[in-house]
Design goal:
alpha/beta, 8-stranded parallel beta barrel, 21 helices, binds flavin mononucleotide
C-alpha cells in the first residue's frame, strides 16, 4: 500500500473509521425552507461516502433557532428534521463511512433576519460585528439553556443514527466568541482567564456526554490561532487543547475567526496560501495532548502530502473540504494507486463564495464546483441512462470545455474527434495559468490533457476545422468550443510595438522592461498585474470602473485584493480610462477628468473577451446535432466551460 498511514484504520472511542480521511463539514444551503435535507442534498453527502472518506460530516446544523447564521440550517431542535436526517445518515453509512453531524450556534454572528424576533445573543452587549444589530448578552440562565440545547441537539443527531458529532468551537461562532479575548470581556465565571472562557465549551461537552453517553464520540472544531489582533493566539490555542484533552475524542484544528472580515482567506486557504498552511497548528497541539486524537486540514488534497503529515505524527487524521468536491473519489483513487488521476481543487473559491450569505447580497444557495460538474447535481447524474447507440462526436476546440466534452463523450463509449487549431491543448487555460499562484489550475490543465491523451480520442492538433471539413467528418454531434478573443479596444496606439494582448502571452519573459501598465482591471487584468508585480515589475492596472475584478468569486477577490495591497510595486487606478497609448507610455483620464501619462516599457491589454460565436455558428448545419459551449457561447468562467462540455456530451 502506497499510503499506509492514510489508509490505516482509526479507533475513535468504540468506533472504527476505515481510514484517516474525514470529509470536512460543508453545509448545503438549498435545504427546504424549514432546513430539512432534500434528496439532492442527501445525494451530495452520500457521494463523499461513496468516494471512500472514512468519516463524512454533515455541515453546520442548528442547536437553537436564535443561532441562525445563514437560514435553511438543519434545525436539530425540531424532531421534524429526523426523516431527512435519518435518510442522509443511512446514505452515508451504507458505504461504510461514519456519519457525523456538526452542531452550531452562531451567537452574535447570527443573522437577525433569520432569528426569532430578530434577536441575536453573544457573550456581551455590543453591536453585531457583521450585521450592526444589537447583541443581547447571555446571562447565566440563558447560558444554561444554551448548554441544554447543545445536548438536546446531539441527542437528536444520535437519534438520527449519526455515529458521532462535531461541536463547532472555532471560526468565531458562539463557543469561539466565548473562547476569544477579542469578543469576550465578561467579568463573571465565563470571562477573563482561558479556563473561564472555556467554561461554556466544557459545559456543552459535558451535557452532550450526559445525554448521549460515553460511546458517542465528540469532535471539537477549534481555531488553532485566530490570526486577529486581540484574538486567540496559537499559545492560547495550545492551552485550550490541553484543557480539552481527553474530554473530547477528536480535536479538530482549523484556524481564524469570522469576526475578522478577511478570515476566510485562511479558513479556506486560497490559491495564494501554501497548501497545508494551518497544519503546524495541529502539529503543535499533537505534541502536547495525550488522550484526544488530532485532526488537521486546510488546502489538503495530495495523498503524498497527507501521508507525510500522518507519518510525521503531525496529526492522527486529516480532513478535506474542497478537495472532495473537486474529486469525491480521492480516497478510493489514492488507495487503489490512481492518485495521478485525482482532480485537484483549483481553489477558485466558487464553492464558498456567491452561493453563501453573508458573503454576497443575494446568494445563489447552490453547491457548484468549477472542475466537477456533478457537484450540486449528484442526484440528477447518479444514474445516467447509457447511450442508445455509439455516435461520432466532433469537438472543435481544446480548451476546458472541449476537453471535458471529449472526455465525457469518450467515457460514454462514443467515437470522439477533437480538433484544436493550435499545436497545444488547453485553450484559455494556457494563458490563465501563467501566474505563480495558479499552480492549482496548471495541475488541473495538465490532468485534463493527460486524461484526453489516455483515452481513445482522436486528437487533431494544428487543425483549423472548416464547415466543409466538419461535414466530411460526418459527425452525429458537433460541439463548438471555439473560445473567445480579446476585445482589443479602439485606442490610438493599441497596435504599437510594446503592446501585448493578455490572451497571446506565452510567458512574462515576452514583456520587456520594468514598468508595465495593464489596461483593464477585471479578473484577468488583476491576476496578470499581480503576478507581474510578484515578479518584481512595477505595475499599474488601469480600470474604468470604480471596482476591480468584480467577476471574481468573492473570497478569491478578497484574497487577491489583500495580495495587491501588500505589493508596493503595484498600483490599481480605478475610475480611470486609457485613451491613448504612445511609445513608452499610456495616457489616462481619471474620474475628475484629469489627464496624465503613465510611463510604461510595455502595455498589457486585458480588456475583456468577445465570444467566437459567429465562427461557432458556421458549424450549426454540419451535423444533425450541434451545441455551442464555453467562452464561444459567452465569455465566462471555467465552471461554465466544464459544465457546458459535460452536459453537451451527455446529449450525444
Ligand atoms: C462549500 C463549503 C461549505 C462549508 N461549510 C462549513 C460548515 O458548515 N461548517 C464548518 O465548520 N466549515 C465549513 N466549511 C469549511 C470546511 O469545513 C473547511 O474547514 C475549509 O473548507 C478548509 O478545508 P479545505 O481547504 O480542505 O477546503 C465549508 C467549506 C466549504 C468549501
Amino acid at each position: 500500500m502506497k499510503f499506509p498511514h492514510l489508509f490505516q484504520t482509526l479507533k475513535i472511542g468504540k468506533l472504527i473509521s476505515a481510514n484517516r480521511i474525514e470529509s470536512a463539514p460543508m453545509s448545503v444551503v438549498n435545504t427546504t425552507p424549514e432546513g430539512y435535507l432534500t434528496s439532492e442534498n442527501i445525494a451530495h453527502y452520500e457521494l463523499r461516502a461513496q468516494g471512500g472518506a472514512g468519516i463524512v460530516s454533515i455541515g453546520e446544523s442548528l442547536v437553537h433557532p436564535s443561532g441562525n447564521s445563514h437560514d435553511r440550517m438543519i434545525p436539530l431542535y425540531d424532531s421534524r428534521c429526523l426523516p431527512s436526517l435519518i435518510t442522509a445518515v443511512e446514505a452515508i453509512k451504507r458505504h461504510g463511512a461514519l456519519a457525523s453531524l456538526q452542531l452550531n450556534h452562531a451567537g452574535m454572528r447570527a443573522n437577525p433576519k433569520f432569528c426569532p424576533e430578530g434577536k441575536v445573543y453573544g457573550p456581551e452587549s455590543i453591536e453585531s460585528y457583521v450585521y450592526g444589530s444589537p447583541v443581547i448578552k447571555l446571562d447565566p440562565e440563558m447560558i444554561h439553556s444554551l448548554v441544554e440545547a447543545y445536548g438536546d441537539a446531539a441527542e437528536m443527531a444520535k437519534l438520527a443514527g449519526a455515529d458521532m458529532c462535531m461541536v463547532h468551537g472555532g471560526h468565531g461562532w458562539i463557543l469561539a466568541q466565548f473562547l476569544s479575548p477579542y469578543s469576550n470581556h465578561r467579568n463573571d465565571e465565563f470571562g477573563g482567564s482561558l479556563e473561564n472562557r472555556a467554561r461554556l465549551s466544557l459545559m456543552v461537552i459535558e451535557n452532550i456526554r450526559k445525554k448521549c453517553g460515553p460511546d458517542f464520540p465528540i469532535e471539537f472544531r477549534m481555531s488553532g490561532d485566530e490570526f486577529m489582533e486581540g484574538g486567540m493566539t496559537q499559545e492560547e490555542g495550545i492551552e485550550l487543547a490541553k484543557i480539552l484533552d481527553g474530554k473530547v475524542d477528536i480535536l479538530h484544528v482549523s484556524a481564524t475567526t469570522f469576526l475578522d472580515k478577511e478570515a476566510s482567506i485562511r479558513m479556506f486557504p486560497t490559491s495564494f496560501a501554501e497548501r497545508g498552511c494551518n497544519v503546524y497548528l495541529a502539529a503543535a497541539i499533537k505534541k502536547v495532548v495525550t488522550k484526544s486524537l488530532v485532526c488537521t486540514l486546510g488546502g489538503l488534497d495530495a495523498p503524498e502530502h497527507m501521508e507525510r503529515i500522518l507519518a510525521e505524527e503531525q496529526a492522527d487524521l486529516v480532513a478535506i473540504g474542497r478537495g472532495l468536491l473537486a474529486d469525491p473519489y480521492l480516497p478510493h483513487k489514492a488507495k487503489n494507486g490512481l492518485e495521478s488521476d485525482i482532480t485537484p481543487c483549483i481553489r477558485c473559491m466558487l464553492c464558498i463564495s456567491n452561493n453563501f450569505v453573508p458573503y454576497v447580497k443575494y446568494a445563489t444557495m447552490l453547491s457548484r464546483c468549477s472542475v466537477n460538474p456533478v457537484i450540486g447535481r449528484e442526484l440528477e447524474f447518479s444514474a445516467l441512462p447509457q447511450p442508445k447507440s455509439r455516435k461520432k462526436v466532433l469537438i472543435i476546440g481544446g480548451g476546458p470545455g472541449g476537453l471535458t466534452a471529449a472526455l465525457t463523450a469518450a467515457d460514454r463509449g462514443h467515437e470522439v474527434i477533437l480538433c484544436e487549431k493550435r499545436g497545444v491543448l488547453g485553450g484559455a487555460l494556457r494563458y490563465a495559468t501563467h501566474p505563480g499562484f495558479k499552480a492549482d489550475l496548471r495541475a488541473y490543465t495538465e490532468l485534463l490533457i493527460q486524461r484526453v491523451l489516455d483515452q481513445a480520442i482522436q486528437i487533431r492538433l494544428n487543425t483549423e476545422v472548416t464547415p466543409e471539413i466538419a461535414r466530411e467528418i460526418g459527425a452525429d454531434l458537433i460541439i463548438a468550443a471555439l473560445g473567445a478573443e480579446l476585445c482589443v479596444p479602439a485606442i490610438p496606439g493599441v497596435d504599437g510595438e510594446d503592446v501585448y494582448l493578455a490572451t497571446a502571452l506565452n510567458s512574462y519573459e515576452d514583456l520587456p522592461g520594468k514598468k508595465i501598465v495593464v489596461v483593464g482591471g477585471g479578473l484577468v487584468g488583476c491576476e496578470e498585474g499581480l503576478a507581474l508585480a510578484q515578479e518584481g515589475r512595477e505595475v499599474m492596472i488601469v480600470e474604468q470602473l470604480s471596482a476591480a475584478a468584480q467577476d471574481a468569486p468573492i473570497i478569491h477577490w478578497k484574497a487577491m485584493m489583500k495580495e495587491m495591497r501588500n505589493m508596493e510595486n503595484l498600483q490599481l487606478l480605478l475610475d480611470s480610462t486609457c485613451f491613448k497609448i504612445v511609445p513608452k507610455g499610456v495616457w489616462i483620464k481619471d474620474a475628475d477628468g484629469r489627464e496624465r501619462l503613465l510611463e510604461a516599457d510595455a502595455v498589457l491589454i486585458a480588456t475583456g473577451l468577445k465570444a467566437n460565436r459567429e465562427a461557432a455558428e458556421a458549424f450549426r448545419c454540419c451535423a444533425p446535432a450541434f451545441r455551442v459551449i464555453g467562452d464561444s457561447l459567452k465569455p465566462a468562467k471555467i465552471v461554465d466551460a466544464v459544465w457546458g462540455g459535460y452536459s453537451a456530451a451527455l446529449d450525444a
